[in-house]
Structures are given as C-alpha cells and as structure tokens.
Design goal:
Length: 338
C-alpha cells in the first residue's frame, strides 16, 4: 500500500500515522520526494482499511498495490486448491459436471432426473430445496423435504449433492449435504458467509448479479478467514444492458479468477443465459476457457418445470451436450472426473 501525503503534513502528524499503521504489523518506508512525500507499507496490508487511511487529515491519496484478499490469493498459495467431495476432485486436473433441476419438485422428478444425468456422465447432482425467487408468489422450494429427496437420489446414483442455503437458521438441515451453494443474491450476506467459514462444508459461492470479480474474491475471503478453505467460485452471468439473455456470461472470469486465485472455478451456463439452446455452446466455451466444473440445469420435463424450465435441458439434450463436453474436455487436457 502506498500513502501519498498532503504538502502541509507536519512531522508530528506523520509520526502518528506511521505509528498507527505499524500497529497492523507492517513496516513503513517514508520517502521524501522533490514534490511529494509518500509512505510505503511493506507486509500484509489486508487488515488495513483503505477508507480509514484516506480519512486521515494529512493523507492525499491511498493506493493498494496488493489485493485485499490473502487466503483466496494465488500469490500466497501458488498451487490449485483441490476439494475432495466423496472421492471426486474439484479443482486440479479434472472437469466435473454438476447437473440437475433448478428445484426439487417431487420424488419422481428428482429421481428420474438424477438417474438420467448420471447415465449421461454427470459427476454431481444439483437441485434447489430453498429457492430464491424474485416473486414471493412463485414456488419457494420444498425445504427440508427437498434435501431428503436429494439424499435419496444420492443413495441411488452415488452422485454427491449440491444445494443452496438461503438462511443461517437452516444450517443444521445441510449436515448431510455435500456442497452448500450460496446463491448470487446472497454473495454478500456476510453473516451467512462468516458462519459457513466456521464449518468444514465445501461452499459453492456464486457471483452476485452486479458484483465484480474482486467482490466475489472478497466474499470467498470471508469464508476462508473463518478457517474453511473449501470454497468453489461460480460465474453465473452478470446483469448488463443486453435483454436477449437472462444475464451476460462473463467467460473471461475463468482465466482471471484462476490467475488471481487458487480456488476451483465453476461456470453455470443455465442461469447465465436463461435459454436452453445456449447452454451447450456456452458449456463448450466454458470448458475451453479452463473451468473446473459446469453447473447445468436439467429437468425430466422442462416444459412443466416449476422453475427455470426455459433454461433447463431435457435428459436427451443433456446426453448430447455431455458427449461434446467430454470431447472438449479431453481436447483441453482436463478430462471428466469419472
Ligand atoms: C440456482 O442455482 O438455483 C440459482 C438460484 O442460481 P443463482 O443464485 O445463480 O441465480
Ligand atoms: Mn434455476
């Protein structure tokens, strides 16, 4: 971090500032230039709040030269993080495909879909039991019963299960869930993130609708700062001015996140586009961009789905998409984790 001082800064004030920042455990280097005096901070500045420094009377400007996240930062953890889930590996050299319906609706629906995605080569099962819906009148999910049905589907297929938590008070219900998803709308629910930081559950953290990649990484940092290093980052499209798709898939997020962080990166082409036809081409592009997993919505009967039918693949479409995903993943040297 570099602190540029105002011209009228007095020695006593500078000493006070140096003493204050030193309290955060960093070393300081005061440089008296011809036109400007600056203080360089050396060491871990993640605990120093830029705004608090900026608020000091003698500070003209503050610049961060290092990212404000440490645990999620590749600089301090050069190797890819690999998260093991029931023998499968997220991150590292393999590709996982998490597939299943937007919402768990009933036993027949989740079991039929789970068996179909497993047969097509999916490596994990998704399904929402607690649904963040824009309208309070839309289907809100089966809650606890939905989780129990996912567990049943796991017993039959062997696929690890991924499902979204919306409220801290439900945490106990997730004890037997393999990966806890934090949805886009909760990416900055810091109370929830902190609590998940105290658990050892893998967390699939989705990028907020209008969040920057740095904000996503800071949210990952919240979980990791509590001691839980099993965080999986997910790009699921961001809101732009383009109305033809539900969101705009930011594929550059994959190489960028992987450059800045060691955490596994997932692409969700279903919520990113909102259109079933776009899911296959975006999945292939995502694999080519180097993602570690895809999260794809598949429904045994999309036309009658209780949520997100328009973006859900039929089992047949998914089978065909998987055939191409397999070929692409092998071409890219990141074969399916089977
Ligand atoms: C979901 O995956 O079911 C979901 C609601 O996604 P998002 O949080 O990305 O909208
Ligand atoms: Mn959905």
């Amino acid at each position: 971090m570099i602190i540029i001082l105002k011209d009228n800064a007095q020695e006593k004030q500078i000493d006070e500032l140096v003493e204050w920042v030193s309290g955060f455990g960093v070393k300081t280097n005061l440089v008296n230039g011809v036109h400007q005096r600056i203080i360089g901070l050396i060491g871990d500045t993640t605990r120093i709040d830029v705004e608090s420094v900026q608020a000091k009377d003698i500070v003209e400007q503050v610049k961060r030269v290092q990212e404000p996240y440490k645990n999620a930062n590749r600089r301090f953890h050069p190797d890819d993080t690999v998260i093991e889930v029931r023998g499968r590996k997220l991150g590292g050299g393999n590709l996982n495909v998490i597939a299943g319906p937007c919402s768990v609706e009933c036993e027949d629906q989740i079991l039929q879909t789970a068996i179909a995605v497993k047969e097509a080569g999916a490596t994990m099962l998704r399904g929402g039991a607690f649904k963040p819906r824009t309208s309070p009148y839309a289907f809100q999910g089966l809650g606890k019963e939905g989780i129990n049905l996912l567990i049943k589907a796991r017993e039959i297929t062997g696929l690890p299960i991924v499902t979204e938590i919306m409220d801290l008070s439900d945490l106990d219900l997730f004890a037997d869930v393999d990966i806890v998803q934090v949805g886009a709308r909760n990416m900055q629910n810091f109370t929830l993130l902190k609590e998940l930081g105290n658990s050892d559950k893998p967390v699939l953290l989705k990028r907020g609708l209008s969040s920057t990649l740095q904000e996503l990484l800071m949210s990952a940092e919240y979980i990791m700062a509590g001691g839980n290093s099993k965080v999986i980052l997910c790009e699921r499209g961001i809101r732009t001015f383009e109305p033809k798709t539900r969101n705009t898939l930011d594929l550059s997020a994959v190489p960028l996140l992987k450059h800045h962080s060691h955490l596994p990166v997932v692409i969700d082409p279903s919520h990113a586009t909102g259109i079933a036809k776009l899911v296959e081409p975006m999945s292939l592009a995502a694999v080519a961009s180097g993602c570690d997993a895809l999260e794809i919505e598949v429904h045994n009967d999309p036309k009658n789905a209780w949520s997100d039918g328009a973006q859900s693949l039929t089992p047949e479409q998914f089978k065909e998409t998987m055939r191409k995903i397999k070929a692409m993943s092998e071409f890219c040297g990141k074969p399916l984790d089977i």
